[in-house]
Amino acid sequence: MLSLSRWRQTRILLIGASAMGMDSSMDKDIGCETTRKRRHVTVVGAGIVGINCALQAVKSGHVVVVLDREAPGQGCSFGNAGLIARSSFVPLSSPRILAEVPKWLLDPLGPLAIRWTYLPRLIPWLVRFVRAGNLKQVHQTAAALQTLTDPSVELYQQLAKEAGVGSLVRASDYIYVFETKKAFAKAAFDMELREQLGVRVERLHGGEVRDLEPTLADHFKFAYRLLDHGFTVDPEGLVKSLADHFRRLGGDIRRCEVKDAEFGPRDVTALITDDGRLETDVVVLAAGAYSGPLARTFGVTVPLDTERGYHVTLPDPGVMPKRPVMSGERKFLVTPMAMGLRFAGTVEFGGVVAPANYARARALLALGGHMFPGIRTDGYSEWMGLRPTLPDSLPVIGSSPKFDNVIFAFGHQHIGLTAAPKTAQIIAELIDGRAPNVDIRPFRPNRF
Fold first, then answer.
1. How far apart are CA 358 and CA 199, in angstroms?
2. In sequence order, what are the residues at sequence separation of 6 or more whose Cβ sits closer than 8 angstroms to the Cβ of residue 325?
3. What phi and psi values does residue 159 have, to the nearest 5 degrees?
4. pLDDT digits (tens, 9 = 90+) for 356-397
5. 179 secondary structure, DSSP code
6. In this structure, are residues 403 and 299 in contact, taking their beta carbons and an 8 Å threshold?
């Protein structure tokens, strides 16, 4: 653990497994003259976003340490679907999705479940979620999220090459496949929104679907092909490789948990951890699904909740698609990976402490067999992780209205992997006292 004497002059603290930014008030809080100096940066959170942020900060010339109670690459960074999804800017709440929710909740194999004991606590979040689904806000949200997702493939290719693991990131198309024309037509709104924002989409019918992806069952007769995407064949390996690259550049990674803080009139002066006290000049909170309590400590109450996602990975499936494949009806993603074939998806609302319901994961086995005839499931592994989610589908990125030296960066829901490199670039700009080259006002923490 860090000694107090070593870090008495700490200037920047990033608490992170997500992303960050700031609103216009930060320009006066952190002046250009002070931010030209070399900073001591502490990133708490060793997930994909936290490691990206740490890597960008050390590349900008800062002294950087990462603190996390777990090793790099755990949590959602371990078990995600691996898709680098340039087009995943369509918000979770939309008129089409809201119309599907009742049917999904009644389907034991459906993509959405709510633990009914958790429902009273979830109701305020659900009300905000429904309100965010109007057409005007859907378009605004998509445009904002695209600033984080659009450059993702190119940024990951560059980062993986720098880290010496270029083979872990692959440029690829990916496809949404459908069994019925009705479901295919329902997805048209989302695809047209993607096209309006520059994504190339092809529409496939009948034999064209099997010609593109011969491993699919015959009953998948419709598909949208989204070009210019990518995926990683090993999400955990990618995070660990970036963490190793960070260390080679002089960064430090330590196991530690932030417990509390000390305050001045308008700033946070120190953090209290389970291994000592650290003085600091700037705090950035990006602790993923666990950000809510610390956000309240730092002056903002946000409606952060958790989508519990599941996966199963088949080590010897006997069938390996060429690209990521999304089930349009069932809303799960299939990705070919180095360790096998991964089926990932589903959403379960139940908070952060309830035990996993691995029946949700095993449902993916049945759905996978329906998608790929003859698939082998022997020796499969199962997993559950926590996605930090806000009801308007936008992360919280910006400065605290209460403390001048606190910046928030969390709540990236399904796009933490995709959005991490661009978010890290924003963080590096803010650490240096430069205005971000994208508009981060939609992500402001006091928007609720």
1. 35
2. 174, 175, 177, 213, 216, 333, 334, 371
3. -65, -45
4. 999 999 999 999 999 999 899 999 999 999 999 999 999 988
5. S
6. yes
